[in-house]
Every structure is written in C-alpha cells, then in structure tokens.
Amino acid sequence: MTALDVEAELRDILDNRDVARLTGFLAEHPGLATTRARSWCDHEHGVGLLEYMAMLRFDHARLGLPRDLPGTGAVARALIDAGAPVDAQPGDRETPLITAASYGDADVAQVLIEAGADIEAVSTPDSGGVPNGTALLHAAVFGMTEVLDLLVAAGAHVDSLEMAAAAGDVSAWPLAAADEQSRLRALVFAADHQRLEVIDQLVDAGTPLDQADARWQRMPLHVAAEHGRPASVLRLLAHGADPDVRDPQHHRKPLEWCRPANRYLDSPAHDEVEAILRPLTRQ
C-alpha cells in the first residue's frame, strides 16, 4: 500500500469506528497511531488521530455520517493503547483534550482524562479556538456542557466567576464584589449551560439582561437561543429579557440566532426554542 492508500484506509476505519479493524491495521503499521494524517483535504495542516476522533461527531453532517456516532471513545482508547500521545506534541496548537472539549465529544474526553491527559494544559496563542485557553474554558465557550462537567469532576481549576457560572456553582464568588462585566459574561455562560439557579442569582445581583459584554459582545438570551437552551430561554424571559433586542455585533434577534443559518450547534431543542420565541418576537 502507498502512504496515501494507508491514510485512506485509516480514515475509513475511523469514520466507521471499527475497533477490531483498527487494532489489526495498527498492528500491520507500527507507529501509525503516533503520526499526523497529512493528506486529508479537509485538514490542510494535518490532524492527529485522537483529534480527528474528537471532531467526528461534530463533523458528522459534513462527512455524510449519521448524527449518533457510538464508539468514538472506544476508538480513542485503542489509539492510545497503540501509542497515540494524549497530550500536545511539538507544533500542535492544542491538546486532544482541548479538541474534545471544543467539539463536545464527552466519550473521547473521558478516555483522555482516564489516560492521564493534562487537564490544565492550554492552547497556543495562535490557536484557532480560544488562545491560551484550557480545556475547561474551551468547553465553556463552545457550549459543551457534558465535557465541562467531566472536567470539573476531574478536578479542573475553576479560576473565575465566569467559569464558576458555567460550572453551575458561584458560591465561592461573592457577586456583590464582582464588576458588571464579569457578571455579564457569567450570565451568558450560565444561560448557555442552563445553570438556572446561577441565572437567578446573577439577575438578583443586578446583572443586566439585555446588555452585551464588552469583550465578546455576547448576550444571554441570544446565546441560549443560538445553542438551543429552552430552559434558559424560559428563565431569562421570566426575568424580563426582551426577545426583540438585537445583538450589537450581528444585529440579530434571539429568534434569528435560533435558526439553522445562524447557529453552529444542531439540536432538536432548537425547535422548542423557536416555538417559545416566535410568538413573542415582533416580525
């Protein structure tokens, strides 16, 4: 087989999450688990095999794969058993765990954590996700609650009010001492991860509902709508959030953010969010 043939066969095995076939193929090609795939046209800079698995569920539609992709964690475990490095290698912009956190594969994240991946490692300053960010920060920013909860349970350091809000417990962070911008960002994270008690606490502390934070220009109701968080949408509306306010960066209402053209996460919960917002939104 040529090198290109090997990569084509490997990709087919990974896409089909065929652990038995993968184990045999790796035995035939020692060292393959430690390499970066260089000839895959949709990964022009090359991709580590663990990172590829961590992205697979998120990329299912683009790759023509079904939404439900069981077995990604088992494939990740087989790759690690064959020598795939669990942390970043020279030249990598982020670790496999950060990739799993960004793309929301909790099964791959769990395997990496169990294999001893560094949960406090940070991405490089020129990374494409959150520069200089930990896996926890990536999971929080990209709305990957299941991975975020795994990381917190594994002991990831919660180092700010914003991350505490994302994790659902702000008891160690006196809200009266926090500046408004921190509380605004915290409210966005609480809304994104459906931490309803934290939403209540932040609103009770005087956090504005319809104001964007200065750093990222994000608004609570807009993010909750974009990511399909019906419980947060209902709670924010109950507190008086205005469904007709447009965000300052893209000038969209929450209902517009909920629609397929404007969101990057895809969930049946978006239909529920749209059903809530449509009758409340002026056309």
TrEMBL record:
Spans of ANK repeats, please give.
92-124, 216-248
| Alphabetized UniProt keyword annotations | ANK repeat, Repeat
Q: Which PROSITE patterns match?
A: ANK_REP_REGION, ANK_REPEAT
Record-linked Pfam families: Ank_2
Single GO MF descriptor:
transcription cis-regulatory region binding
Q: Which PANTHER family match?
A: ADA2A-CONTAINING COMPLEX COMPONENT 3, ISOFORM D, ANKYRIN REPEAT PROTEIN
Q: Which InterPro entries match?
A: Ankyrin-SOCS_Box, Ankyrin_rpt, Ankyrin_rpt-contain_sf
Q: Which SUPFAM superfamilies match?
A: Ankyrin repeat (SSF48403)
Q: Which GO terms describe its biological process?
A: positive regulation of transcription by RNA polymerase II
Q: What is this protein called?
A: Ankyrin repeat protein
